Fold:
Amino acid sequence: MSACPAPHSEVRWLRSSHSTGMNNCVEAARFTAAAPADTFARYGPGVTAVRDSKSPGRAPLTFSATAWDSFVGALREHASA
Structure:
């Protein structure tokens, strides 16, 4: 995980369906081919960015596909326990 220094205005941000709409949630996006080349060089394809919806102009945190999938898997395991 690290801060993403690259511009991220081309990214389509998604909110959880559990969001209250009060702008107090986390948004996530998968970088596509529109992402800067240095992002792919550092993380490989399938980079996921996460940001605070209250501060959309701040740099998001970025995760490799492997790290993000592990995180989501751990959440699912916890939810089903």
Summary: The beta strands are 2-3, 14-15, 26-30, 48-52, 61-63. Confidence is low (pLDDT under 50) at residues 1-7. The radius of gyration is 13 Å.
